[in-house]
Amino acid sequence: MDEAPPAAGSSQIFADNLKGFILAVASSAFIGASFIIKKKGLKRAGAYGSRAGGGGYGYLLEPLWWIGMVTMIIGEIANFVAYIFAPAVLVTPLGALSIIVSAVLAHFILKERLQRMGVLGCVLCIVGSTVIVLHAPEEKTPSSVEQIWDLATQPAFLLYTASAVAVSLVLMLHCAPRVGQTNILVYLGICSAIGSLTVMSIKAIGIAIKLTLDGINQAGYFQTWVFAMLAISCIVIQLNYLNKGDLSCY
User: Are 47 and 231 in contact (CB under 8 A)?
Assistant: First the structure.
């Protein structure tokens, strides 16, 4: 009788992790497909106006780009829900699978040939994601947003946050206007640096929603809204530079 609670707890953790895993894989499929759809839309918009890589926003009038955006939103929602159920260390690596989906669809839809190094990169993505997921540690779920805030305000994380913001500002204000249109790594660097903060804030919001649904209202904590504003800001920045990066070398 004494062993029943731990077993039940382990079963619930496994079930939540499985839900998070399935949602993360589905998210990668939708997001990977959205990149290809949006790129076709960006190409079509670029043929009739200024390109996104050159600072134009004509793609906002292109229906195909909006279809890609809707597909991405569906994928991001699935990814968001996955963070509610599973640890970030399990969900985040699965995002690399979107690269595989994009590579395969690009080969058939955009007629982009995948070279040997590209194939090797895809294999490494699969192997890396699999290793991390199989060895993902059990996560101790915080009981409130305040606990997440305490972890996020530790000196080490604050130092990392300041570094990520500083690198992003240098890339956005100095590098992007000069070499962004010819070097896609500038836009990818911005999205990656900001994306690391997005993961943290999305995980915090996911936990807040889960606790609220369990009867522990988190809307009264100002930290919840700080994390929400941070997530929205990061997502908007990523979307802007992701669209620029789609055609920066086109």
Answer: no
Average pLDDT of the chain to the nearest whole number: 82
> What pLDDT, on a 0 to 100 scale, did the predictor assign at position 154?
93
Among 197, 217, 93, 85, CA closest to 139: 85
| pLDDT over 80 at 159, yes or no | yes
Tokens of 58: 């004509």
Q: What is the pLDDT of residue 113?
A: 81
Unique residue bearing structure tokens 């990814």:
79
What residues contact 225, with CB distance under 8 A and at least 6 apart? none
| CA triple 155-161-165, angle to 5 deg | 145
Model confidence, pTM = 0.71
- The model's pLDDT over 112-134, given as tens digits with 9 standing for 90+, comes to 887 888 888 888 888 888 888 77
Residue 77, token pair as written in the block = 């929602």
3-state helix/strand/coil string of the chain: CCCHHHHHHHHHHHHHHHHHHHHHHHHHHHHHHHHHHHHHHHHHHHCCCCCHHHCCCHHHHCHHHHHHHHHHHHHHHHHHHHHHHCCHHHHHHHCCHHHHHHHHHHHHCCCCCCCHHHHHHHHHHHHHHHHHHHCCCCCCCCCCHHHHHHHHCCHHHHHHHHHHHHHHHHHHHHHHHHHCCCCHHHHHHHHHHHHHHHHHHHHHHHHHHHHHHCCCCCCCCHHHHHHHHHHHHHHHHHHHHHHHHHCCCC
52 has a pLDDT exceeding 60? no
